[in-house]
From TrEMBL:
Domain MOSC: 27-164
Source organism: Altererythrobacter litoralis
Name of the protein in its database record: MOSC domain-containing protein
Domain of life: Bacteria
Length: 217
């Protein structure tokens, strides 16, 4: 799998709701940008308890999903922006059903690894001003995902995002999201148990798998 990165996007904390700060809104960077263990140079998170860190260094929300949202939202001006959903890496021809947990990609000179799906939160609905978007994401599985950084390096818009290793786990990001995050989807003890023990899955999602497993018992 190989696709072209259309934009690399960063954001800094800004007033978001009732004086609360957020760096959810991301804007494209011109030229090369450094990719470190914490993510793109110039990117930040206001809420470090729930965002950022090594397992959520880079977020990719598939650009092809914007067409779905254009129809669902009757065309929204934010959907013309690469960073509309807080994405750091903007690319087409890649989605949750075509990538597996643990897949490794070369992005410019950096090596990155898929670590978890993105759990949607209220900030998406607040940014768009549309209630119900979180439920739609849970129902459709259009979650996006995060990478951890294995080798630091630089990258820029126009570089390839190329998968160089796959098959390290048996689950696509779509399957993990459905199994753990979607309360309406069927879950199995066997799969949840395996996910809870998988070290390639970020600790927060392993914990979520444990909780989902407990609810089945």
């Amino acid at each position: 799998m190989k696709t072209t990165v259309e934009a690399l996007c960063v954001g800094q904390p800004k007033p978001f709701r009732d004086g609360e700060l957020s760096a959810f809104a991301k804007d494209p960077v011109d030229g090369p940008v450094r990719i470190t263990r914490e993510g793109l140079s110039g990117d930040a998170q206001a809420d470090r308890k729930h965002h950022g860190g090594e397992h959520m260094a880079l977020h990719l929300y598939p650009l092809d999903h914007h067409a779905f949202w254009h129809e669902a939202l009757s065309g929204h001006e934010l959907l013309d922006l690469h960073g509309a959903f807080g994405s750091n890496v903007s690319a087409r021809d890649i989605d949750e059903g075509s990538v597996w947990l643990g897949d490794r990609f070369r992005l410019g000179r950096a090596l990155i690894e898929i670590s978890q799906p993105r759990m949607p939160c209220w900030k998406i609905e607040h940014r768009f001003g549309v209630p119900g978007m979180v439920k739609t994401i849970l129902r459709t599985g259009r979650s996006g995902w995060y990478f951890r950084v294995i080798e630091e390096g630089t990258a820029q818009a126009g570089d390839a995002l190329e998968r160089i290793e796959t098959g390290r786990t048996p689950w696509t990001i779509s399957e993990i999201f459905s199994e753990i995050a979607n309360p309406a989807a069927p879950s199995t003890r066997e799969r949840l148990s395996e996910m809870a023990l998988c070290e390639l899955l970020s600790p927060s999602w392993r914990g979520a798998a444990e909780r989902a497993l407990s609810n089945l018992r």
